[in-house]
Write a sequence for this structure.
């Protein structure tokens, strides 16, 4: 097991109260696996990874509890110095906006040489040669010339290639790509994803791909965790998730995006309402206020991430690999027909009304 | 195949063959590049929109797609006369508005409204929602104060906001709710035309569908004509009757939504379609992307001839014909209502790339059991082929046998990347432990 995250819980203390950003997230990653982490803005997918890397903005953000074991070491207990050694060499990150993650006043060469020499005992000349080789590898023409350019002399797609080159410079075991193509045009996105897939497959690098785009996940990852309001609500292999989505939120997401390969004019089925206010401590399922399948229990009890189908006798839950167990956190999951239809079909199903007390959605700022 | 959707029936506007609402011809919008501070000399132009002609029929939705910097937003703004075009004409409901100014322009503007991309930047944070929605009524002097307030309450209900929203400020609303305020403001003066410039791209996935459905419902209720500008072809395809694909200031393909989706004829449209990820791993696993080389050239110095020739996969295939870099291809109609600006568009039709991009080239059992719409309305399943259907495909124009599906053999070739050397130097880890 390369990476094992257990019960990771992250809170932010703000003037408006404590933000419950990540609520007990657990997942595993084997070497060479590509796992997608999908969700909308504010669902905690980026915060999960910042917390793993000990990069939470201090002092507001802190890990309340949980363990992050990477290669047998609990990262939450590492000193800042050892953590700094790990970042860049064993775990590398790529962010959404390459312009803000590159230093605008240093040439690409200076930045790459600095990164390489911070972790490896080699001469500046060797590090420079390696930088040029890496730039060539990510498809930048005339790398000997371009390595002396500044970030602003590159286009958005090229900057992201530079970021990939820097991330892979030290052959990390794990690459965390946080919305790597969201700022790029679709044809450039295709270039960058192709490159990322090719390079990580060649090297056997494990990847955590954070994105809001289910299409990107479908093409890139082998397993997917769907997050909502700081919880993992569904975890499955990519084929399972898309063929048989089981959580009402995943079902809703798949029904609310128009698909290019559907020729008819089918109406979209939106998820009504808005995501919850994370300052309110969760008391039930966070998706309940927007869910068509909710039952009374959803308002009061937080469902845990459990196998959708009962396990065979003696079998254990598989958290990784191509045969990972399909797990959901839901009290009243849609049936297969309902998942396909995008709405409850059972007779007399009425979404349970909120219980007679302050509900998780009440107390929103701005509700008068 | 001759797509039935390309026939004249569906290409007509719902109200028959009356005059289009908007006619744009030969529109050019250049932005000057100047040098010097006091005595500015004109050293060039950014050709944001270069010789574009199109028309918007009453009651239709025309989608305008392209990548950032292709001029789609500029075109939308020029149609609204937020810019004064460099050349060409914009005719709105029979009236030439290209050079209109002052009161004349204001009275036309009452009939055309805009919805903006960013619901955070496009609403004045110091005005209440009611004030924002009522402002167009005030500007155009419509109704008394009491009537305006009643109208605002109606509009709030129309876009799905509660009536008490009119006293609240933009920061009290979520992104989706703010975009509803933007829609209500556009509707306030009962316009004929709404230009929606990336109206959903700033919103979360689960909220996008709410706004798309709202726009579709309002179009029916208020007989609106939409110019829908977006970079996401799957969204544009969903909402539009016809689609214009732009590249570097020019329209490269103009077709019905279904025509473009099933038989894209411009190499750029094919590449664009193939680049869009489809949320289905089975489909994704079978598709082959066309990876375009490099980036979009600068609109200040567009390439000569066809503007796409520097990145064109078809030009490579045809052995780099000189015509591509010398002669600017005109937009020519290859089928009824399907126009394309490519000298060799006939070569695209029926090609492996076209089949791959549209998903028709893949032949294996249906993708997944998750077919949202098909089961949502069992009886109403589209008879049109979708991915997974195996159906013999005939080229639109030629009668030759289908060429062999020639897939991209090696993506690294297209990226212009040298093969990764097998032996990489192995560096020793730092010994000082720093």
């Amino acid at each position: 097991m390369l990476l094992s995250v257990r019960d990771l819980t992250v809170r932010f203390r703000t003037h408006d109260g404590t933000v419950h950003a990540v609520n007990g997230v657990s997942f595993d990653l084997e070497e060479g696996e590509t796992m997608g982490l999908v969700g909308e803005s504010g669902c905690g997918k980026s915060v999960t990874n910042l917390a793993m890397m000990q990069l939470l903005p201090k002092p507001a953000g802190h890990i309340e509890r949980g363990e992050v074991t990477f290669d047998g070491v609990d990262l939450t207990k590492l000193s800042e110095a050892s953590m700094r050694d790990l970042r860049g060499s064993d775990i590398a990150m790529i962010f959404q906006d390459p312009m803000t993650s590159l230093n605008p006043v240093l040439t690409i060469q200076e930045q790459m040489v600095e990164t390489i020499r911070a972790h490896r005992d080699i001469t500046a000349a060797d590090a420079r040669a390696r930088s040029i080789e890496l730039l060539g590898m990510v498809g930048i023409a005339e790398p000997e010339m371009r390595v002396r350019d500044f970030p602003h002399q590159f286009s958005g797609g090229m900057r992201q290639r530079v970021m990939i080159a820097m991330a892979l410079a030290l052959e990390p075991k794990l690459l965390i790509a946080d919305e790597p193509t969201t700022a790029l045009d679709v044809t450039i996105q295709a270039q960058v994803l192709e490159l990322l897939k090719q390079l990580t497959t060649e090297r056997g690098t494990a990847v955590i791909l954070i994105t809001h785009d289910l299409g990107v996940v479908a093409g890139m990852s082998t397993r997917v965790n769907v997050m909502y309001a700081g919880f993992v609500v569904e975890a499955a292999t990519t084929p399972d998730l898309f063929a048989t989505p089981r959580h009402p939120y995943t079902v809703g997401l798949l029904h609310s995006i128009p698909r290019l390969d559907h020729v008819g004019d089918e109406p979209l089925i939106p998820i009504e309402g808005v995501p919850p206010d994370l300052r309110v401590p969760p008391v039930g399922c966070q998706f309940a206020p927007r869910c068509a399948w909710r039952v009374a229990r959803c308002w009061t009890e937080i469902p845990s991430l459990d196998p959708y189908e009962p396990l065979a006798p003696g079998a254990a839950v598989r958290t990784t690999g191509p045969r990972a167990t399909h797990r959901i956190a839901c009290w009243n999951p849609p049936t297969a027909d309902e998942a396909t239809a995008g709405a409850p079909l059972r007779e007399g199903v009425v979404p349970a009304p909120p219980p007679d007390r302050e509900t998780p959605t009440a107390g929103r700022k701005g509700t008068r | 195949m001759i797509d039935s959707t390309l026939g004249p029936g569906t290409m007509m506007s719902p109200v028959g063959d009356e005059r289009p609402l908007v006619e744009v011809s030969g529109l050019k919008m250049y932005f000057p590049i100047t040098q010097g501070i006091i005595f500015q000399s004109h050293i060039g132009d950014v050709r944001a929109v270069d010789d574009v002609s199109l028309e918007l029929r009453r009651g239709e939705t025309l989608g305008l797609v392209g990548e950032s910097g292709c001029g789609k937003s500029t075109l939308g703004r020029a149609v609204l006369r937020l810019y004064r075009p460099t050349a060409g004409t914009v005719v709105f409901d029979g009236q030439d508005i290209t050079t209109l100014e002052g009161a004349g322009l204001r009275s036309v503007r009452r009939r055309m409204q805009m919805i903006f991309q960013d619901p955070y930047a496009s609403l004045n944070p110091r005005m209440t929602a009611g004030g924002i929605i009522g402002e167009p009524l005030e500007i155009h002097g419509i109704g008394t104060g009491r009537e305006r307030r009643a109208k605002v309450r109606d509009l709030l209900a129309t876009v799905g906001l509660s009536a008490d929203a009119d006293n609240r400020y933009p920061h009290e609303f979520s992104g989706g709710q703010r975009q509803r305020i933007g829609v209500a403001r556009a509707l306030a003066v009962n316009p004929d035309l709404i230009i929606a410039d990336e109206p959903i791209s700033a919103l979360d996935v689960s909220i996008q569908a709410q706004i798309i459905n709202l726009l579709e419902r309002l179009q029916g209720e208020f007989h609106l004509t939409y110019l829908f500008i977006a970079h996401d072809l799957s969204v544009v395809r969903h909402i539009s009757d016809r689609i214009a694909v732009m590249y570097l200031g020019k329209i490269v393909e103009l077709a019905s939504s279904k025509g473009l989706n099933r038989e894209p004829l411009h190499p750029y449209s094919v590449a664009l379609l193939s680049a869009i990820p489809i949320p289905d791993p089975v489909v994704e696993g079978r598709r082959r992307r066309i990876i375009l080389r490099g980036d979009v050239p600068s609109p200040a110095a567009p390439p000569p001839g066809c503007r796409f020739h520097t990145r064109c996969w078809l030009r490579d295939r045809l052995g780099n014909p000189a015509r591509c870099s010398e002669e600017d291809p005109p937009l020519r109609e290859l089928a009824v209502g399907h126009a394309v600006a490519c000298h060799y568009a006939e070569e695209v039709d029926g090609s492996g790339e076209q089949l791959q991009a549209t998903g028709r080239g893949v032949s294996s059992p249906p993708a997944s059991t998750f077919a949202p719409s098909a089961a949502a309305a069992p009886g109403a399943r589209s008879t049109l082929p979708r991915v997974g259907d195996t159906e013999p495909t005939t080229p639109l124009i030629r009668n030759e046998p289908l060429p062999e599906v020639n897939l991209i053999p090696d993506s690294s070739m297209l990226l212009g990347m040298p093969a990764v050397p097998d032996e990489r130097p192995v560096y020793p880890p730092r010994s000082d432990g720093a």
